[in-house]
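pasting for ref. prot 1 ->
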Amino acid sequence: MFEFRLKTGDLIIFNNRRVAHARSAFKSNGGVRHLQGTYINLDDLKSNYMTLAIKLGENVTPPKVGNGSSF
């Protein structure tokens, strides 16, 4: 198990199809808890990454994205 605490402004990205996730119990102590989720297309992510790398003049290897079975 990997456990960590996010700070204000932190971002975490993970493949929800491949992660078993949970959280420990917490006491709000009057605080506010805000989680925001979104979904992306992995092909679009890879394409945008490569396009940006080319624009910045970076020589990069295309990243492996997905569940390891598509690239």
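and prot 2 ->
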Amino acid sequence: MMKHTTTLANLSVLLLAAAPLSGQSHLYTYWGQKWTGGQFGHAVRFVGDVDKDGRADLLVGAPFAGVGSEGRAYLMHGATARGTEIQGSAAGGDESGHAVSGCGDIDGDGYADYMVAAPVFGGGFGTVEVYSGKSGAKLLSIYNPAWRGLGTSLDSCGDIDKDGKPDAILGAPYTSPNGSAIVVSLAPYKVLYEIRGDTGFPRAGAGVAGLGDVDADGYPDVLVAGSTQVRVFSGKTWSLLRSFQAIGGTGLGDIDRDGYADYAVWDANHKVLVVSGKLHTGYKTLTGTAAGTAGDVDGDGIPDILLQTGTGQIQLLSGKDFQVRFVVPGWSFAGGGDFDGDSFVDIVVGDENADSGSGNVTIYSGRKLSLCTDTHTVSLAALGAQALHLDAGAANADKVYWMVGSMSGSLPGFDLPGPVHMPLNWDAYTDIGASMPNAVITYGLGSLDEHGRALAWFKLPRNTPAAAVGVILHHAYVVFDSTSGAFEMASNAVLVDIEN
């Protein structure tokens, strides 16, 4: 550690100019064209830390991928931002990836598992496949010819049967005569309860959600949406707790801090109603077509809300005062996952219509980033470059920054005096940046402008060997006072993946 701090202190007296550019909260964008398109991003969901790398992983559905629209789903890994295609059993027209969800650790191996639905499988009967987070192997295929459209919707719903393992709720809205939603135990598989639609509740199962414990009886409860009505059921007795004239709904967590899980329902008139779980009455009306929990993004102890406006925008609302904190383009959304391992909740937004229907998925940090980029891949053949936008804030105006990298990742990182935590693992590549700060990073050492901003570049040199293909690098910078040598802050880390 002393070697690291001494090297940094020696560098703190050097100054180089850098160009200003603003920071933002953009973490990463996946383009569907690279992943076979097919409305990539139609469904998105954080599924927990599948690979035990300290970061939440992301499940993405592309239901119309493939020549015959068999559909696909992909697991995106937080540490590398690379993706793995899930090898399901879907055939032409099955629309695998229409709905996706985490399901907790059902096989007890300590790894989060996940579900992928293909609701048109088997000529319209549908199937839900459950996969191991540890090995990627298929653990379970759920199929029943009595159900139609199985997997049109799905969600994890907590441990309803009290066997110590999470259960799931699956929507089959085309089941005769009025649809159904099936609550199942996944390990071992068994049907716990089937909620059937009726003439006043047609297409039951078009939407489903686990709500948490809305009635505080110690059992998680569930929501089922049909084409004209939403109903909330007790997970203990299966009695009807509340019904709404609505077309969708979801759990929100305990927003009003009364000890009861709250939820939202929405209708066809762009009205989203936030409902008290304790009273089952609405207490806030929002304008939009769908909502969901973001997790506690702003760190105030209250879950925040993601809202689809119906105009191709996703809003982040404070759960405390419902003020809009963030607006980004997109249609599908999910929150509650820490994709980059910085202990802040992140948000994922999918736009299945982007790029002529190929789709894309963008992950946004729950905090303002002090280092970001517009691209996370560079081509060796093209000797590509990555622009690195520094924004340390006005409090650090005119101070010195120093950027280094790591070939061995960003966690756990190392500590500097201050205390300042550098989110890089020190290795030989870090040594290069310390001893030759502008050798690999152009303007890797310099001064921030009057706004605390700068621009640096990672550029592949002409002598980069072919063996560099597949290498992932992380870069971050530290800000220090050139007079005292005191470390002021360290940025987040940004990765770059070297491709052919």
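The chain has two domains: 2-23+372-499, 26-367.
Confidence is low (pLDDT under 50) at residues 1-23.
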